[in-house]
Amino acid sequence: MAAPKLKMRLGDLLVHEHIVTNEQLMQALNSQKSTGRKLGDTLIELGHIGEKQLLEFLAQQLGVPFLDISQRRIPSEVASLLPEVHARRLRALIIEDLGESVLIGMSDPADLGGLDQLEQMLAPKRLELAVVMESQLFEAFDGLYRKTADIESFASQLEEEYDQTADFNLTTSFGDEGGDATVGKLLQSVFEDAIQMRASDIHIEPDENQLRIRQRIDGVLQENILKENKIASAMVLRLKLMAGLDISEKRLPQDGRFNLQISGHNVDVRMSTMPVQHGESVVMRLLDQTAGLLTFDETGMPADLIARIRHQISRPHGMVLVTGPTGSGKTTTLYAALSELNQSSKKIITVEDPVEYRLPRVNQVQINSKIDLTFSAVLRTALRQDPDIIMIGEMRDKETVEIGLRGALTGHLVLSTLHTNDAITSALRLIDMGAAGFLVGSSLRAIIAQRLVRKVCDSCAIDYEPNSQEKLWLTNLVDESATSHQFKHGKGCQSCQYTGYKGRIGVFELLEMNEPMMTALKKDDSEGFANLAKANPTFTPLAMAAFDYATQGVTSVEEVLRLVETVDVAG
Which member of 106, 430, 450, 480 has the greatest number of CB atoms within 10 A? Predict the structure, then answer.
């Protein structure tokens, strides 16, 4: 195609059409001199024009279509006609293969140099140009240019090279030129794909005739199956070396950790191995240190809840618990609290297994049961270190619970986690673990219970009418008015990988102890405590908090009911 050209310079054209003022143009031009950025990007950054408005205007002036590709299904084999490195560099994506030509989307259709390069790379096919928002392009890049093909290619290559008697020169970094270069490249691709897809965990599971590599994305596992099942041992061996584990031990579970630099991300990997029928299963939790710690304001908590939690953690003594199942975001909430409390006037000691994030000024202790460095052993010493605040990674046994409660009773603020379903049962669980009721009632100040629910994808959200079974569930959860609300769900699009969900948000309940509840605990009156807690006007159960998100269109009815199944909503 002949490269489209503007009849006037972009800035003059925008002023001529009264889209920006001359003063705004001059401000952008002055800013452009110092930043070197393109004029359009500068105008958007200064807030003088929106990205969509600018691109629609450019498309109209150039006589090419403006496309919303978030709803469009683009085959990965079509996108791959243009290699990823060039697609990202030129901000261009092949949307459709038309035979003798290709429809290509660009975020800067006036980039004549880029168009010339594309024509040369894609020749003899002709280019048919469309204008696409840059944000949509990058979302499409992440979804379409996955490392799946690389993973399959390296797996096949490794199977050809791999011999059970081969002497591999295994090392602890990627991309080495030794005998195991291929397994390094394979694992690099696995990690790159996981980071690109925002996965929290990677599962490597050998089976009799295949190897499963699964990623947990937004709390749900997604599977990639490789037929090269014999390569599993080479992958596990390499990972064990990286984590500093015993490569000769295949009969017992092992735990380790290592750090990686992947695609510009500093990733801390917690690794667990377990012997299974056809080899060893590996699960790796990915902690992206580059993203940094979240503050309360960034967790998605409602503002009124944040204010109440801040009040609780500002107290000089007492215990605050964060509860929920594995993967519910408890650690994120605890570290958000520690970040706010981390001041030069406060001495903070944490007892963790493992230490997930490194915090300056905080004395963090890593548990090591092999040398009897247990939670209870460290806690006894920690209380003699004159702390103001103690964070216990998890309440695991009676001794740890009692030391933590006594620490809270003797002038320390104690933060900890507990694996329970909701806030009300957490207080009772401490008593079940052997703590005296008077100790729990005197020390416990607040309990935060939480879950993560998937967010409806903004790009493909549509109105949703609950079915008869869902209406019955909602009526039982709330009342007859529950089904009168307008709900949303995602129909699936390029942006969310056709799942209908993108990202997760925290759902919280906060139970603040009052005098009647504390008295009930001191008397070991479990039923009375539970009734008082449910009657507390400031207490909103998890299920109702999730329902509120559904009425706002943030999450779906499906996610609310999935959460309801994990908590006790009776009474």
Answer: 430
pTM: 0.78
Q: Is the pLDDT of residue 452 over 50?
A: yes
CA distance 315 to 446: 11
How far is it, in rounded angstroms, from Cα 254 to Cα 544? 40
With tokens 């490269």, the residue in question is 3
Give the tens place of pLDDT for each residue, 81-126: 998 889 999 999 999 999 899 999 998 877 888 889 999 999 899 9
The answer to whether 57 and 6 have CB atoms below 8 angstroms apart is: no
Q: Identify the bridge partners of residue 265 per DSSP, sorted by sequence position.
A: 262
The rounded distance, in Å, linking the Cα atoms of 478 and 334 is 31
Distance CA 550, CA 41 (A): 36
Enter the DSSP assignment of 2.
P
- Any idea which residue has 């930043």 for tokens? 35
How many whole angstroms separate alpha carbon 524 and alpha carbon 325?
Answer: 25
- pLDDT for 5 equals 62
Q: Inter-axis angle of helices 423-432 and 526-535, to 10 degrees?
A: 160
Question: Could you give phi then psi for residue 282, rounded to 5 degrees?
Answer: -125, 130
Alpha helices in 63-164 (DSSP H): 76-79, 84-90, 112-122, 134-144, 148-161
The pLDDT of residue 176 is above 90: no
User: Cα–chain-centroid distance for residue 214?
Assistant: 16
Mean pLDDT of the chain: 88
Neighbours of 336 (CB within 10 A): 23
- CA 404, CA 416: separation in Å to the nearest integer? 9
- C-alpha to C-alpha distance for 439 and 443, rounded to whole angstroms: 6
Give the gyration radius of the chain's Cα atoms.
Answer: 28
Closest C-alpha to 106, from 48, 46, 78, 64: 64
**The residue type at 234:** A
Measured N-to-C along each axis, helices 232-243 and 181-196 cross at an angle, to the nearest 10 degrees, of 80
Residue-level pLDDT at 2: 55
- Which DSSP symbol is given to 483? G
pLDDT of residue 567 exceeding 80: no
Phi, psi dihedrals of residue 158, rounded to the nearest 5°: -65, -40
Please list the residues that pair with 368 across neighbouring strands: 373
According to the model, what pLDDT value does residue 39 have? 81
**Residues in CB range of 5: below 8 A, 6 or more apart:** 62, 110, 112
- Could you tell me the CA-to-CA distances from 51 to 59, 131, 465 in Å, in that order? 12, 11, 33
Q: How crowded is residue 420: how many other Cβ atoms within 10 Å of its Cβ?
A: 22
Half-sphere exposure of 88 (CA within 13 A, CB side): 9
Query: Distance between CA atoms of 166 and 157, rounded to whole angstroms?
Result: 15
Q: Which of 207-211, 253-257, 297-301 has the lowest mean pLDDT?
A: 297-301
Total residues belonging to the chain: 571
